[in-house]
């Protein structure tokens, strides 16, 4: 329409107005975060890399995850931009934090197994939601929007929980570690918000076009659609499939993982440990959080069977695989990754190899750094 100019919604009232630095920070940081969507792997923003053998270490894991979680940060940036007032923004971010804290704790402690790909798709669509709302203008009634933010916070928390469970939390120390991880998440979120404001105020002088809220809202919609599409297209069978283990792979039965390993730092000094050698359990506990497959075997295997297991584990083509003896293990071989365990009463290396390849083809096997 001739002579018609789109003007971003204005906030009236000096006391209620969000400071210019805050507005610019939210706009520019949202745009910068969305630029991280440059690769397909970026769509998988919930991986929790590494592990820790201390409760305090889980604070760092939570902080690191939040600072690396582009989708969380983009959603928060969109809320800050849309809110327009510091007080309203604080209330909305608090609701978001409450939502993801509730489901992070509940789902992890209750051992809920939800479909992580479906969760990630919904998280991506949350960006579309806040972007579309922003393009339409600030809501006149904020109650429904606040309820939606809380709801999406619950979904974001499920995403956090699915990846935290990958680390194999011990039953006797689960609650302190989950709480510590959540504290770290909130610390990371606070750091990110402060950084948004500071970085945005600096860059606004060099990239003035990024001050336009409609540009950031449009980028949110684009990022959400692209991320959801990548997830759906790269894992089409995973989006609607219930989380359940395949009944069998060859001669091995596949079930949900119940094995846990003590937490530690660093990788094993070698990939395969012979009968009689001490397996570095804490190192195994570390690498399972990095997407490895751990192969354990009964120490009294026949020489030819042991040779098959050794050859598989040490073969560079096998990928991220480590193995060693498990005294007291009744089954001939077990292969364990973050979600499932293949239990083999006989040594079936072809089945173990298929189980391993299936896991490495799963996007969840590659943790976010």
TrEMBL record:
Keywords, in A-Z order:
Membrane, Transmembrane, Transmembrane helix
- Transmembrane helix as UniProt keyword: yes
One matching Pfam family, short form? DUF3105
Q: Transmembrane segments in this chain: where? A: 69-86, 93-110, 116-135, 142-159, 179-203, 215-234
Which InterPro entries does the annotation name? DUF3105 (IPR021454), Put_HupE_UreJ (IPR032809)
Which superkingdom heads the taxonomic lineage of this protein's source? Bacteria
Can you name this protein? Uncharacterized protein
Q: Which organism is the protein's source?
A: Micromonospora deserti
Output the lineage of the source organism. Bacteria, Bacillati, Actinomycetota, Actinomycetes, Micromonosporales
């Amino acid at each position: 329409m001739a002579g018609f100019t789109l003007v971003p919604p204005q906030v009236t009232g000096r006391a209620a107005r969000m400071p210019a630095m805050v507005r610019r920070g939210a706009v520019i940081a949202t745009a910068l975060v969305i630029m991280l969507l440059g690769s397909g792997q970026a769509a998988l923003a919930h991986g929790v890399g590494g592990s820790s053998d201390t409760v305090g270490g889980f604070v760092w894991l939570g902080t690191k995850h939040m600072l690396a979680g582009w989708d969380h940060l983009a959603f928060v940036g969109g809320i800050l931009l849309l809110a327009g007032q510091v007080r309203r923004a604080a209330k909305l971010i608090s609701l978001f934090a409450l939502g993801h804290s509730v489901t992070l704790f509940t789902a992890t402690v209750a051992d809920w197994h939800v479909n992580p790909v479906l969760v990630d798709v919904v998280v991506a669509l949350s960006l579309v939601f806040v972007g579309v709302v922003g393009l339409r203008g600030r809501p006149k009634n904020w109650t429904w929007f606040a309820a939606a933010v809380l709801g999406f916070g619950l979904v974001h928390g499920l995403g956090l929980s699915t990846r935290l469970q990958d680390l194999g939390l011990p039953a006797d120390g689960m609650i302190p570690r989950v709480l510590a991880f959540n504290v770290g998440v909130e610390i990371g979120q606070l750091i990110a918000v402060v950084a948004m404001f500071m970085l945005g105020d600096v860059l606004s002088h060099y990239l003035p076009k990024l001050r336009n809220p409609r540009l950031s809202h449009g980028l949110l919609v684009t990022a959400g659609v692209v991320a959801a599409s990548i997830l759906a297209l790269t894992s089409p069978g995973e989006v609607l499939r219930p989380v359940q283990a395949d009944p069998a792979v060859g001669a091995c039965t596949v079930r949900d993982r119940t094995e846990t390993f003590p937490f530690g730092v660093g990788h094993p000094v070698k990939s395969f440990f012979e009968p009689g050698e001490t397996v570095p359990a804490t190192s195994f506990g570390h690498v399972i959080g990095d997407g490895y497959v751990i192969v354990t075997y009964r120490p009294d295997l026949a020489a030819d069977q042991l040779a098959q297991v050794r050859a598989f584990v040490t073969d560079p083509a096998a990928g991220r695989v480590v193995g060693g003896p498990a005294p007291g293990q009744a089954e001939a071989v077990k292969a364990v990754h973050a979600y499932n365990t293949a239990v083999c009463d006989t040594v079936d290396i072809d089945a173990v190899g298929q189980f391993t390849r299936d896991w490495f083809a799963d996007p969840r096997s590659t943790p976010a750094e």
